[in-house]
DNA sequence: AACAGCTATGTGGTCTGACCATTCAGAGCT
DNA sequence: AGCTCTGAATGGTCAGACCACATAGCTGTT
């Protein structure tokens, strides 16, 4: 933790620039977070390790247990921790690595707050999936290709309904992202997909006759799949962008953010 | 996401693969989060509004104040809330919209946990900034162009040191992202840049003679700037990718994540 | 009346201490 | 050996108190 006494500043400069205000972090839980983050950054704590028990951490850092718990909650909300009750080796608060869940919640929240228009999200999705498709064209192995093929098969099933189709659709894009070999991009792709899940499904249901749309989307998947198998990165990327733009254009209801508040 | 061991896996079948485990939400703070999120998603709460006081919320939801506070911390860590002490109108817990800070912390944390190799981050950065450059070529207004020009000027100053150069460098890329008119992409770009800030600076300092590198990078910025002013999206994107790849290649030290744990 | 200063009040921030619920390791019994 | 049961460790929750802080509004002076 840095001392917040660094008001120093350059004497000669006349307020040189902004620089984030060096807010005095007086809040206890932030100290705890800093302490934990320091351990993580220095490598003394890594995935799988367990934190000291809350009570112990509290006494070590000289804060109350509530403060420790608040810090743990914040880290947990970032997908960096997980708490398990009980005794023994598998209990306690352990360092984890589940950023995509955290990213999903974060994106969903801010989309809900209308900070991120759906159009912006779509643009990001295109950027990500172009990259994924390109990388997948080079890196995909047989198993990955099989996963993609399987989703297309599911999309082709005669009895497929909207939910199942959407699932298969999602799985196809996630499979590409994972095949690309870039965890970060894959996680972000998953997060975006999950953030928009409700709205996509909503749009699908507002589509009276969807069999034609379904077939078109499935065929586009086939083409993308083909390009990836051919190792044609450029074509895969272009087709992916085209596919996404087409889908968005065909599902205008997706842009309606406000729905009912009934969570599933 | 966690290990993708949870995905498919069973080739034979159905496995609706619902993803979301039916977690028994026994934890109190999760209920509180759901309650707040519901208000947000339904639009009853939006940016600027204030939440009921903690004590009141606690009694309304029939949980302890500690539970409420933990929920608030989690939302706060996502940049969706901010708490202020005191009385009167500007106090209390208010809904905010600061996703970029949250994204920064999240990325930094997971990069620290080695979940996201620097190479993956770079790939994402390229995807984002290609998009930004492309969009900026179409959307940039005079003010935005002026901001970019100013950063190039700062990079050209005779007395510029590594810190100042890095600041200007960052500002240039952020200016492009903002000029693109896509908040989400801009925030992510900022977050990535901030996440890597320490390591970039570290790499810069390990570079004995850096004047040549500095000039090259600055010239690349000039070219990108020129392409954007010309409205040449394709060229701007290509130059940006080239620029980033060049910088990464020239700063190999950036890939060393582990440092010493001694605070500066 | 206008202003300055003080106080009341409401808010988050923190701490303490207790108790509950869950889980596992190991003692003890069959 | 195998099973059962108990103890202990751990997170989950709660209640109540007090502190720090910032505004709103009252009070007193000019």
UniProtKB/TrEMBL annotation, chains A, B:
Residues 1-21 are annotated as: Disordered. InterPro entries: GntR_C, TF_FadR/GntR_C, Tscrpt_reg_HTH_GntR, WH-like_DNA-bd_sf, WH_DNA-bd_sf. Transmembrane segments: none annotated. Pfam families: FCD (PF07729), GntR (PF00392). SUPFAM superfamilies: GntR ligand-binding domain-like, Winged helix' DNA-binding domain. This is FadR/GntR family transcriptional regulator. Residues 26-98 form the HTH gntR-type domain. Keywords: DNA-binding, Transcription, Transcription regulation.
């Amino acid at each position: 933790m840095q001392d917040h006494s660094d008001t120093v500043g350059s004497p000669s400069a006349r307020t040189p620039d902004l620089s984030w205000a060096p807010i005095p972090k007086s809040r206890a839980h932030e100290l705890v977070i800093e302490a934990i983050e320091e351990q993580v950054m220095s490598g003394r704590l890594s995935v799988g390790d367990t934190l000291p028990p809350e009570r112990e951490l509290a006494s070590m850092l000289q804060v109350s247990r509530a403060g420790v718990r608040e810090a743990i909650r914040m880290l947990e909300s970032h997908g960096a921790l997980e708490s398990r009750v009980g005794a023994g080796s598998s209990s306690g608060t352990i360092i984890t690595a589940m950023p995509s869940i955290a990213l999903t919640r974060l994106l969903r929240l801010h989309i809900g707050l209308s900070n991120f228009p759906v159009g912006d999200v779509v643009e990001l999705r295109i950027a990500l999936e172009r990259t994924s498709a390109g990388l997948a064209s080079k890196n995909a192995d047989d198993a990955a290709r099989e996963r993609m093929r399987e989703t297309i098969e599911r999309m082709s099933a005669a009895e497929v309904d909207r939910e199942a189709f959407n699932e298969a659709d999602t799985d196809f894009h996630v499979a590409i992202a994972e095949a690309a070999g870039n965890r970060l991009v894959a996680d972000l792709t998953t997060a975006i997909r999950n953030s928009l899940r409700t709205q996509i499904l909503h749009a699908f249901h507002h589509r009276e006759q969807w069999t034609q749309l379904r077939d078109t989307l499935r065929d586009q998947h086939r083409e993308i799949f083909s390009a990836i198998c051919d190792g044609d990165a450029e074509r895969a990327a272009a087709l992916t962008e085209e596919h996404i733009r087409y889908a968005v254009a065909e599902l205008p209801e997706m842009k309606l953010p406000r729905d009912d508040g009934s969570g599933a």
